[in-house]
Amino acid sequence: VIVGVARETASGERRVALTPETCKKLVAAGASVRIQPGIGDGAHFPDQAYADAGAELREDALAEADAVLCVQPPANPVLAGLKPGAVLVGSLQPQADEGRAAAIRERGLLAFPLERLPRTTRAQAMDVLSSQAGMAGYKAVLIAAQLAPRFFPMLTTAAGTIRPSKVLIVGAGVAGLQAIATAKRLGAQVEGFDVRPETREQIESLGGKFLDLGVSAAGEGGYARALTDEERAEQQRRLAEHLKNVDVIVCTAAVPGRPAPKIISAAMVAGMKPGSVIVDLAAETGGNCELTEPGQTIDRGRVIVAGPLNLASMGAQHASEMYARNVYNFVALLLKEGALAFDWDDELLAKTVWPERGK
Ligand code: NAD
């Protein structure tokens, strides 16, 4: 089997779906690995490391590939030129782009968008949503610390005492919990809240305080459900009062398949202390804060609101290491003695493949 990896072309994408480590593993499993030169440049993996791991470097790495690995999908014309029936593994979001969906269908590609993986225990080692959310939560807090005109930790100095910043993390999923741990390490006073009640214990185990807004909305599959109008109003009322005393908010709340819930209103922001900072990691899906502009940092002299995109790419080396291991673990399900084989009784394949089987 020929496994091909091309340079990522999405704007600002520094991550790569194959590292020298996973390249070596694929070669050991009997694959021929072909890569375009420079695939690892953005994440600081040099070409030579891939060559040492057994990869063949060539500009036409995808031309005869039986399996193509990517972070973000290749451009549609590239997809349309892949070997018919080739396997495609990555964060593909086929429904997000009609041209992409058409290229996958028309070329008869066997696409495995990893964001479709069922979130079972067995799938954890392949779960790119989790591995990348961890980096995003970490970087979001560092951005907040960087933008804040204040210290995070408490300081006792000859120039007086500085009180620690109060950091509130909205949403305590994978990204939110990493954000809590990171803010805590920087010495802030950290609080978090979520609508899933089991997060109380998780937040507290990281040294954070659970902010109880009186709303509990656990949904299916361990995810949150959208709030009713009454629940939302209750959450908003309690939150508005609380935010007057918060220095930094990091937003991470999401509901699968829906735009990010709007939790922080413009009026709440207006009630915050001047010099407060909001970093909205949910910007990608519209943001948890009404004022968020995706990709922008707005500083109108009072509260700074940042909506950074693709935070995982900012930590491209470790994010790629984790992403590439996720991809390798998935591809290993498809490799039998150096050839591709598909066990459609395995739910990890059957539930992930797109278009769905039979459609
Ligand atoms: P996510 O990115 O979909 O959402 C982030 C958080 O936002 C969630 O915790 C959610 O409850 C919260 N949220 C949604 N609406 C909210 C609101 N109005 N107010 C406050 N918070 C709100 O979630 P995620 O990080 O991908 O993970 C969510 C769940 O999935 C967790 O229980 C996690 O443990 C579980 N999970 C399981 C596996 C696995 O077993 N393989 C892997 C990853 C995650």
From TrEMBL:
Keyword Transmembrane helix carried by entry: no
InterPro entries assigned: Ala_DH/PNT_CS2, AlaDH/PNT_N, AlaDH/PNT_NAD(H)-bd, NAD(P)-bd_dom_sf
Any one Gene Ontology BP term: NADPH regeneration
Catalyzed reaction equations: NAD(+) + NADPH + H(+)(in) = NADH + NADP(+) + H(+)(out)
Source organism superkingdom: Bacteria
Residue stretches making up the Alanine dehydrogenase/pyridine nucleotide transhydrogenase N-terminal domain: 4-136
Enzyme Commission no: 7.1.1.1
Top enzyme category: translocase
Assigned keywords, A-Z: NAD, NADP, Nucleotide-binding, Translocase
Annotated function: The transhydrogenation between NADH and NADP is coupled to respiration and ATP hydrolysis and functions as a proton pump across the membrane.
Protein's recorded name: NAD(P) transhydrogenase subunit alpha part 1
